[in-house]
Every structure is written in C-alpha cells, then in structure tokens.
Specification:
4 helices, 197 residues, nine-stranded antiparallel sheet, Alpha-D-Glucose-1,6-Bisphosphate, Chain A, domain 4, alpha+beta
Length: 197
Amino acid sequence: MTIALRILLCFLTLAFNSIPLNAMCVSVQFELDLTPDQTWSVMRDLSISDKYLPGERQVDILSSNKSGVGAHRRIYRNNSVDDYVDETVVEWIEGEGFTLKLHKDETVLPPFERAEFKFTIRKTLSSRSLVVLQVLSEMPSSVSSSAPSKQALIESSQRRLVQVAAGMKHYYQTGLRPTSLERERLLSDVQLLGYAC
C-alpha cells in the first residue's frame, strides 16, 4: 500500500468517525430572477414564512427584535394553537443568510437532539440569486440509526424541503402565496444537492 493511499484511508476514517451516526443534512437550491439584494430584502422578513410554507397558516414574532441573532418566531400549523414550531435565529449574516434553531418552547423539536434550518443567498454569474436551503439535524443516540429508518427520514425531509423551496421561489418572485398547482409546477426548478453540508 502506498503512503498516499494510507494517508487517504486515515483521513477518510477520521472524517467518517467525526460524523455522528444519527446526523442528517438535506440541501436544495434554486435560482431566482432577483438580485441578491432584492432576495435578501424579502428573506430577512421572518414574518412571511406563512406565505410560502405548505400547510402553514400563521406566524408570530415573539422576540422584541424582528431580525438578527435572537429573533424568535412561532409558526402555527393547521390553524391550531397547540400545533406549532418555534424558530430562533442563531446565526445572521447580513445580506447573505441566517440559521434557525428549530424547537418547541424551550426544548429541541421532537424527536431531534438538534435541528436547524439554514437559508443562504449566493450570486450567480448573471447576477441573479441562487438560494440554498439546508436542514441539519441529529437524532438522539437512543433512536435507531438503522439504514431503512434513516433513509425514510431523509426522503421525507427531501420532499418537504423541495416543497418549501418551490413555494419560496413563487412567493419571492410574485409576492403571492402559491397555489398547489403553482407549487407543483416549480418543483422541477429545485435542485436536490444531497446530504453533504
């Protein structure tokens, strides 16, 4: 075995062992016919997610600050006061994107040990916006990390994230909530990036 191959094997072993078995990351991207500045002016408004999320109905900003680190929104689903997700900004890069910690009240969003949703804007060669969405999560070690159950969770997350991205694309470009047909039409504009974040 050559020295280069041994080094590569050592690196891959270290890299693989540093990734928790129950970690998951799903990423998608889509282009907008907007400049990054135009995209950011919409994205930074944390109160509008009900306009593009499938099945979501109401968003309340619970923090005194409406943007930046610490901004906290609650998204009520299905018109129910008991069915909600809390999202708190844990990273904010002005003009480029932010990361939300997903939780319910003071605890991480069940069944996860960690769950985050990352929004990023990149500039294309034609000065348009490329929006990248990432869901990063980690299941508790007590939950099975078997390949079938993990694959089912990944596939479910992929479907949901593609639906969110298609809705965002429609809303950002038109200012209107997408219908089911409009969302469906834009699904092919969303590119699945895979599992590496």
